[in-house]
Amino acid sequence: MSTVVEKPAPTGNGLNRKKSSSRKGKKAWRKNVDITDVEQTLDELRAEERTTGGKVHQKTDDALFTMDTAGDGKVQKELRKNRPLKMDEILAERSKIPAVSGRHKAVSTSAPINAATATHKANTKISKAEKARLLDMIKRRTSTSLFAPVNKPLGRSGTTDATKAAGRFDVWGSDGEQKQEQEQEQDSGDSDEDMIGDFVGEIVTKVTAKAPRSFKQKQKVSLPAVKEAHPGASYNPTMQDHQGLLRLAHNEELRILHQREKVDSKLAYPKELDAMISFDDQTGGLLEDSDDEEESEDEAEDSKDDTDAPKPKKKGKKSIAERNRLARAAETAKKEAEIKRHKELIKQTNRVKEIIKTVEEEEAEVEAKRLENEQKKEEKERAGMKRVGRFNIPKERIHVQLQDELADSLRQLKPEGSLMKDRFQSFVERNLIEPRVPVAKRRRYRLKTYEKHSYKRFDNPNHA
Amino acid sequence: MGKLHKKGKAGAAINYITRNQALKKLQVTLADFRRLCILKGIYPREPKNKKKANKGSTAPSTFYYAKDIQYLMHEPILGKFREYKTFAKKMAKVMSKGQYSTAKTLAENKPIYTLDHLIKERYPTFTDALRDLDDALCMIFLFATMPKTEKIKSETIENCQRLAAEFQHYILHTRSLRKTFLSIKGIYYQAEIKGQTVTWLVPYQFSQNVPTDVDFRVMLTFLEFHQTLCGFVNYRLYSDVNLVYPPTLDLKLDEGGAGMNALIIESTQSSANIAKTVSQSTTSTVAASLSKEEKQRLQESEKRIKSLSSKIAHIQETEDNTTTTTEIDQDADSAMDEFPAPLPNLDGTAAGTVTFTDIQRASQHLTHFQSLFSNCVIFLSREVPRYSLEFVLRALGAQVGWDAVLGEGSPFDENDDRITHQISDRPTQGHRFLSRQYVQPQWAYDCINAGKILVGDTYFVGKTLPPHLSPFVEAKEGDYVPDANQFEGQTEDLAIESDDEEEEDEDEEDEDEEDADEDEDEDAEHKDLHQIELEAEAKGVAFTEFEAKENKKKIKATKAAKAAEPASTAPTTRSAGKKRTAAEAEAEEAKELAKIMMTNKQQKLYTKIQYGKNKKAAEVEKLTQKKELLAKSAKASANKKAKK
């Protein structure tokens, strides 16, 4: 560095001042924080490793020291004679740490021409099946083009490496714990981290994320994975059970019908409109305006008259006598009220027990209602959400076979419904996934239509 | 003055996060987010007040717990998704340049993720996993029957079929099937595994078409998780009963359409040698997909099968002193595992106190139920669904053979004289063997649900069948059960008649066999059961047959126990007209007293309840009387006919 030192040789105070530059804020901290000592130590450690092949402080005393029982001056002299040049020594220096084994190098396009032709053969020689296998890793199944946009998501096929690896050991036994420990070690097994770990390990430990309470909490929905079949869904049911199931299906169908009717009726053209139109036709739509207005005006006037009739009393100054009278009346009223209250109190004291009982009963009732409400709420929660996200959860279809569809024997049975749909429905009902509605593909832009010249010729006999 | 609270800094506003916010936070696509949520088990939640949770907006949106999403950020799979994205980009670039060798090396280093940590996280214990197995089984059995389409790869279907077959084998081995139900949708099965009730639904074969309005991306993600779960569960289940997992696939049988019989189930105890070869062959089965290697695999599996018998013989010679699980142990285990759960058709014992005798009776009942078909040798005609019937029958100890049309590997053919029942489903049966009963498929399912072997006459080929009742409907107290006595007197005591048959069979078999039998009587407790099984298998006796013999002994024991029992199991129900006993009168009095102590409101409620109960009882009474009358008239007419 060729910076000019402007200030005189730094005293102790000066050094301190230079060190204590601002570390306010992230940027300033990064700029001004002094980590030379840390880096220096790390460098020293690396140098140690290079020369000794490991960390000195980790080695045993035996590896570091030998007891020199008999020092010899002669030997020293002789050694000095054959000593190589310093230059050679420096050049011959090699790190004691073994070199990193080379990664398989990808064939670069910038390689020499000879090599390129040699590898070219290896590159082009590939079976069709192999090529398909390689492409299958990246290609989207739906795309027709060979090199269509990539990023095929994992696990589209249902069998992944995870499923293949399943069942090789006991997850719940000791093997599982061992395996997980191993994996954790592998994750944190980098050399640099190791080195730092020696110093920092005592203070900082790698924290594994703890699952939140909510994660361990079971879902409130408690519907069984496999619903019990209705007895009427037997392939050879009793008459009663079958009728029961039929009734269920019937009611469900009726409900849907009613709903549809309701919507239809709302959407339909209202008949009242028809009636109005016919009235308009009768009057010819000429008279109505003037007549109506007059009538309404008349009514308004009438009502005005009515309100005028009872006149409010005029408020004047009260006379003293009046005031006195009023005061007396108020006093007597107060006294009477007092007496009444007193009487009531006496009455109540006579039936304290009864009152206590009614209060208790009321309280019990409130408590019971609260409990009931709570229970209802819980039940509702257990039944699952009715709607998740944008869509309502569809109701399960009741599968039923009519009397004449029922099979006489197992051989003739025609299964009803699709279990795949059934499973999907179950997942949705238990709120494991949100309900979805298949989205039809839409055109990005509208298709323009043009009339071609030939179509304009309407007199053309070929034109329909 | 209290602290001022800013809006949107606490409560629902920060507890919930909308889906779009989550996408932004995690920086993933919607599709990836959906996948992550399914795999990790993060579901949409419902805030109490949507307006508060969504900054005052009432627009419809899906909410998640903010902390869930925060936790999702630490998920290693999320990192893998990103890695895969970059990998795909690199790959596409290299492929478009035609640098195939580079592409190959890239493909070798494809980022791979596993789900075992998620399984462990979501199901900390094995029991948790069993509780959630219903879903997984349904999906796996469903996809095992799906046709291969563009969306569903054949690889997936095969894997599902394997997992399904493995699970079924476990059920067979432990005899843990409890209920079955043929519905118009599919077949319901209910099993009991380690005290947990597992129900799953299997579609009828060849009936599944691929619906268009189901989101397959979601389904396949679920399937991926469920396959992984099922794989680990199967491993644990197999290792718990000392079986080798994964079982070897007999390729020849598999190609012949043997279905779940193509798997070779072996015990881990028999010998370490076998385990070794199994591991070798399995690695080969997993690794190879080329035709050359397939051939090799075929050869290997053939070799292995051939060597199996010799190995077993070897084991027989060098007597295994390690008797890790004796028969008794196993029985005790199963009994201990299973008694607390409700058993099919177990007489209703008082729920309040469980006495030791109750437990004992339950376990006896269970052992009897588990060997329901143990004395049956059943042949399946070509028109019946073997995939279900074989499983159901063998799960309760039957020996099952089938027509060659239904696939390879049948232990016996139609002309075998050991056959006690033949299941066929045709209008008329042409040629008939006198020694066996011809029944329709429903017979098997009804037997299981009834918990006893029903008379085959009502299920005779071509006859109109009695209704198939759902075993999942549990009659409440006081309900009228129309079929309570339906099967009364219809049960067959097959044990006695088949005893003779069995003896005859034994005569036909080798002398060694008989020696072995005698040995069994003495040493059964000391010898390793698995080993005996294997010996028997080597001699050509089917596993089921062997089981049947084993169970015969058990049945004899249970019969003896039963003979002592009937007094205790006698029905306690009493018809209305009879005199009251002292105890009943006392109970009535206590009720009256209790009624006096009630408040007015409670009394009214009580009378209401009683009224309902009485009404129900009257209905039941009416129906039973009607039934009795009908039965009487039927009897009378039968008598008349007989006289004529």
UniProtKB/TrEMBL annotation, chain A:
The keyword Nucleus is annotated on this UniProt entry: yes
Amino acid composition bias (Basic and acidic residues), ranges on this chain: 331-341, 369-384
Biased composition (Basic residues): 16-30
Region of interest called Disordered, as start-end residue ranges on this chain: 1-31, 171-195, 213-239, 278-343, 369-388
Predominant location category: nucleus
One Gene Ontology term of the molecular function aspect: 5S rRNA binding
Subcellular location: Nucleus, Nucleolus; Nucleus, Nucleoplasm
Pfam families attached to this UniProt entry: Nop53 (PF07767)
Biological process according to GO: ribosomal large subunit assembly; rRNA processing
Keyword terms, alphabetized: Nucleus, Ribosome biogenesis
Record function comment: May play a role in ribosome biogenesis.
Family: Belongs to the NOP53 family.
Protein name according to UniProt: Ribosome biogenesis protein NOP53
UniProtKB/TrEMBL annotation, chain B:
GO BP, sorted A to Z: maturation of 5.8S rRNA from tricistronic rRNA transcript (SSU-rRNA, 5.8S rRNA, LSU-rRNA); maturation of LSU-rRNA from tricistronic rRNA transcript (SSU-rRNA, 5.8S rRNA, LSU-rRNA)
InterPro entries noted in UniProt: BRCT_dom (IPR001357), BRCT_dom_sf (IPR036420), PES (IPR010613)
Domain BRCT: 368-461
Gene Ontology cellular-component terms listed: nucleoplasm; PeBoW complex; preribosome, large subunit precursor
Primary residence: nucleus
Region annotation (Disordered) ranges: 483-527, 551-586
Name of one Pfam family that matches: Pescadillo_N
Top-level taxon: Eukaryota
Listed Low complexity bias regions: 560-575
Annotated family: Belongs to the pescadillo family.
Protein name (record): Pescadillo homolog
Organism of provenance: Linnemannia hyalina
Gene for this chain: NOP7
